[in-house]
Design a protein that fits this description.
The structure is a homodimer of 402-residue chains. With 402 residues, chain A is α/β, with parallel strands linked by helices. Chain A is built from 16 helices and 14 strands. Chain A folds into 2 domains: 235 residues, Rossmann fold; 120 residues, Rossmann fold (3-Layer(aba) Sandwich). The two termini of chain A are 29 Å apart.
Chain lengths: 402, 402
C-alpha cells in the first residue's frame, strides 16, 4: 500500500508562531484624524495583550500551553500527497495539500479563534462579539469561546442567517448567541433597517454592529474579534505552514511552489508565511495567493489607505482595496468576497515577494470536481481557487518535462 | 501539554477484517417459499464475491490492497481521550472515543462502501444502485464508486431529497445520480405514486426501487448495495474496532465497557465486534448497543423472521424487528429509525453477550450538547445515543468510587 499522508504526533505541533512583521515593514494604520493609530486607541475594541501582538516585531512568539491544549483537539492536521490527482493529470509534479478541514467547525479559522479567545480570557474579558458572513468564522469563534468559558455573540448577515440554518445551529450548540444582522440591538443595525426594513444585510453592516456591541458595553468586559486581515490573525495561522514544513522535511521534500486562496488573507498567510520567511532568506520558491476574477483585489485594485468596513469604524489600513463600498458579484466563494486584503499580504505583493493570481468561478468549480473525484474530498469553493492554480502548475510541469 | 489523541501510522492500518460468523451461529435467511436462501438466489442482487463473504465463516479475512489504498484517504482515524468531558463530569472513568467523522462523506459508512465498490468492480460490475434516507449512506457509496470508476444511482427518500440539498450536491460532485423516491423510473416507485401522488417517500420504498433498478437492468452489469444489516457490511466495519484496540494497546489500556449506537447495526458492530471476540474468549467486558426509546428494536421487539424492507423484496432475516411496516416517530436520529436489527447483532443479544440499552431523545441531545461544549466536536444525533450511555456509565463510576 502506497502511503498518502504525513501525520505528526501531537508532541510535534509547532510551539511558536512566525511573525512576518520581523521581516517586512508596514505603513502604520491611520485614525480618522490622519495620524497613526496608537495601541491605546484600539483598547476599547481589542484586549491589550492582542494589541501588543498586533504591533510586535518579534520574529518567533511562543504559543501558550493553554492554546496548544485546545488546538490539539484536531491538530496536527494531515499533509496529504494528492497521488490520485497527480495520476489523473499525468503530471510529474508532486502535489501536497494541507487538510485543515478536520477542525470541529470545518475550516482553518479556529487556529486564530482559539488564540484570540485565550488572550481575551487571560485579559479578564468575559464576552466576545464578532460578525460572520456564511458562518465559518462565527462558528469558529463560538467553538473557541466555549472552550474558555466566554460568552459569544455573532452578528450573522441576514441573508446567510436565513439560508444557512445549520451554521446557526452549530453556534447555538456551542452556546453562542447568533442574531441576524441588521438587528435592532445596535444603532448601526437600526440605521440600516430604517433605510431598508427588508435589508438582506452585508458584512460591512455586521462588522459595524459587532464593533458597536463591544465598545458600548458599559461593563468594559466585552471585546470584538476579527477572523482575518489583521497582523495577529495572520500570526496565529502560521502554525499551518510551520507544521507543513516539518511534514515535508520528514519526506525530504521542499516545495517549488506554495499556493493558497486569499480573501482577507489568513488562509494564505497560514500556509505561506513560513515559506515567505525562507524566500526572504534566499530560498528560490514561487508563492501564489489566489483570488477570484470577480473580486480582483490584488490583481486589479490600487494599493491605498482604506477602511476595513463599510461604516468606516476601522482605522485606515495600507492595503490593496476595491474600495470599502465595493460590492462584488454573488460568487459562491463567500470567503473571497472581501474588498480589501491583509496589509501584510498586500505589502508582500508590493515588494514582489509573492505573485497574486486570479481565476474564474467556472475554472475553480471544474478544479474542485476533479479533486473530489480523484482525492475523494469535496473542497470548499474558496479552496477551489488554490486548486485551480495548483492544477495549472501541474499541467505546466507536464509540458516542461515532455 | 497533555496529549489527547492516539494516532497510528498509515502502515499500521489493520490488514484483516474480523468475521463474527466464525464465532456465532445464525439461523439462515429464508426465501418466499420458506426454505433457506441459497447463494445463487442472491446473484441478481449482489456480486458473487460479496455473497461468498456474506456466508463465509472464516474468522480473519484479508483486506485487499486496493481497498486499503482508498481507506487511507482518511484512515487510520484518531482515538481521542475525552479529557475535557471527564473533567466536566468529575468522573474517575477514562473515556475514549473513535472519531470516524474525518472520512470524506463524514461518517463510518465509507468503510463498507469502499469495500463493496471494490468487490463489485472486481466482479465486472459497472453500475451500483442503493437507497438513502438522510443521505449519509448514499454519499458514502457515491464517493466509493467515484474511486473505482463505477456509475452510481441513489434513490433518496423524497422528503430528505427536498430538505437536504447539500447531501444531494455531494453525491453529484462525486458523479453519482441522485433521484427522489418514489420516482417514475421503477414499478415500485410508480405504484407508490399511484397510491399517493404526493408521497414523501420512505426508506422501504427507496430500497424496493434500488433493488428493482439493479435486478431489471438487462445488461447484467448492475448490482444493489446495502449500507448496514448484512454480515459483509458488519465485517467491513470491524476495521474501526481493530484500530481502536491497537490504539488502546499503545496506551496500555483495555476497556471495561464498549458502547455504540445501533440502527441497522453497522456502526455498533464496527467498534464492538473485535471486543466481542475477546469476550467470547473469556475477557470480562460490558458491551452496549444503544437505540432510541422511540424505535426500541432490541429492547422491546420480538426476535422473529422478518423482511428487511416494506415491499418484502428481501429474504426473511432472523432478527429483532418491530415489523417491516413499523413507522417510528420522526426523531432526529434518522439513522436509528430502522424497524429491524442486523442478524449478527440480534444473535449476540439473544445469547446475552451484549446488553442493549434505550435512551430518550431529550437525554441524547443533552449529552450531545455537553460533548460539544467540552470536547469541541458537535456529534451527530445518532452518536448522541452512545454518548448518553457513556455519560451514564461515567456517572456510575463516580458514584462507585466515592
Amino acid at each position: 500500500m502506497e502511503t498518502r499522508k504525513v501525520i505528526l504526533k501531537e508532541t510535534e505541533i509547532p510551539r511558536r508562531w512566525y511573525n512576518i512583521l520581523a521581516d517586512i515593514k508596514l505603513n502604520p494604520p491611520l485614525g480618522p484624524d490622519g495620524n497613526p493609530v496608537k495601541p491605546e486607541d484600539l483598547a476599547p475594541v481589542f484586549p491589550m495583550n492582542l494589541i501588543e501582538q498586533e504591533v510586535s516585531a518579534q520574529r518567533w512568539i511562543d504559543i501558550p500551553e493553554d492554546v496548544l491544549s485546545v488546538l490539539n483537539i484536531w491538530r496536527p492536521t494531515p499533509l496529504v500527497r494528492a497521488v490520485s490527482l497527480e495520476k489523473a493529470l499525468g503530471t510529474p509534479a508532486r502535489i501536497y495539500y494541507k487538510n485543515e478541514s478536520v477542525s470541529p467547525p470545518g475550516s482553518h479559522k479556529p487556529n486564530t479563534a482559539v488564540a484570540q479567545a485565550y488572550y481575551n480570557k487571560a485579559f479578564g474579558i468575559e464576552r466576545m462579539t464578532t460578525e460572520t458572513g456564511a458562518g465559518q468564522w462565527g462558528s469558529a469563534l463560538a467553538f473557541a469561546c466555549s472552550q474558555y468559558g466566554l460568552e459569544c455573540k455573532v452578528f450573522m448577515v441576514k441573508v446567510s442567517f436565513e439560508q444557512k440554518p445549520y451554521r446557526k445551529s452549530m453556534m447555538k450548540a456551542w452556546g453562542a448567541m447568533c442574531v441576524a444582522s441588521p438587528s435592532r440591538e445596535t444603532k448601526a443595525g437600526r440605521d440600516a433597517l430604517e433605510k431598508d426594513p427588508n435589508s438582506p444585510g452585508s458584512l460591512g453592516i455586521a462588522i459595524s454592529e459587532a464593533i458597536e456591541a463591544a465598545v458600548t458595553d458599559e461593563t468594559g468586559k466585552t471585546r470584538y474579534s476579527l477572523g482575518s486581515v489583521l497582523n495577529h490573525v495572520m500570526l496565529h495561522q502560521t502554525i499551518i505552514g510551520l507544521e507543513a514544513k516539518k511534514q515535508l522535511e520528514l519526506l525530504g521534500e521542499y516545495p517549488d511552489v506554495v499556493i493558497g486562496c486569499a480573501g482577507g488573507g489568513s488562509n494564505f498567510a497560514g500556509i505561506a508565511y513560513p515559506f515567505v520567511f525562507d524566500k526572504i532568506n534566499g530560498k528560490e520558491i514561487d508563492i501564489f495567493p489566489v483570488e477570484p476574477i470577480a473580486c480582483p483585489t490584488m490583481t486589479k485594485a490600487p494599493f491605498v489607505y482604506d477602511h476595513g468596513d463599510t461604516a468606516k469604524y476601522t482605522p485606515l489600513l495600507p492595503m490593496y482595496s476595491l474600495g470599502h463600498t465595493f460590492v462584488p458579484p454573488p460568487i459562491h466563494a463567500g470567503g473571497l468576497r472581501y474588498h480589501g486584503m491583509s496589509p501584510t499580504v498586500s505589502q508582500l505583493v508590493v515588494e514582489g515577494i509573492i505573485q497574486p493570481k486570479a481565476v474564474s468561478q467556472t475554472e475553480t468549480y471544474e478544479s474542485g470536481v476533479t479533486f473530489a473525484r480523484t482525492e475523494g474530498i469535496i473542497p470548499a469553493p474558496e479552496t477551489n481557487h488554490a486548486l485551480a492554480v495548483a492544477i495549472q502548475e501541474a499541467k505546466n510541469a507536464k509540458e516542461h518535462c515532455q
